[in-house]
Design a protein that fits this description.
The protein is mainly α. The chain contains nine helices and no strands. The longest helix has 29 residues, at 179-207. Residues 1-5, 114-141 and 204-208 have low confidence and may be disordered.
Amino acid sequence: MMTSALPTPRAEGGRAGDKSAALDESITAWALAARGGDAVAVEQFVGALHRDVQRYVAHLCGDPQAVDDLAQDTFLRALGSLHRFEGRSSARAWLLSIARRAVIDSYRYAAARPRLSHVPDWQLAAELAQPCDLPGFDDGIALLDLLASLPDDRREAFTLTQLLGLPYAEAAEVSDCPIGTVRSRVARARATLMDLLDEADQPAALAA
């Protein structure tokens, strides 16, 4: 059965939320220290969020070869803008907002150039950044296949909140939309994924 491939819903509170909030506080503190020129804090800030940035840009962009470049561009932009970061939002949300802009800018740049290849394989891009620490991911690519079928806005909301663990309010900030819209997109994404998983399980059940 494939149902285990769908991660357990991430709540907005509880122990998991407390741990996430504590980690975000540490990351934000590192960002503020890095702004002041602390080289160790820079390494801690980048190390703590590098995988999240890679996952996020992989789920946004369609070019698997561009994931590392976009992640690097994101951090270069962020480190160059740290002097403007005041800690009013979490450093994670601030950085993912920069990552989103980096992906959008890459689209604009690509649109201004002649297309040199066929449409990139989004699934491969997602696979390169596949999270390995989520329940059910021993089922491999199943969730990535299903995510690829979601509309872009729902996939982004699901990725931010359920895979990266961003609070809904911060996901709304990153996506530049109301928090209610994020909740709605996540709920619809989960409903669609569960329906797809149920459909995939039916042939297996009949065969058994």
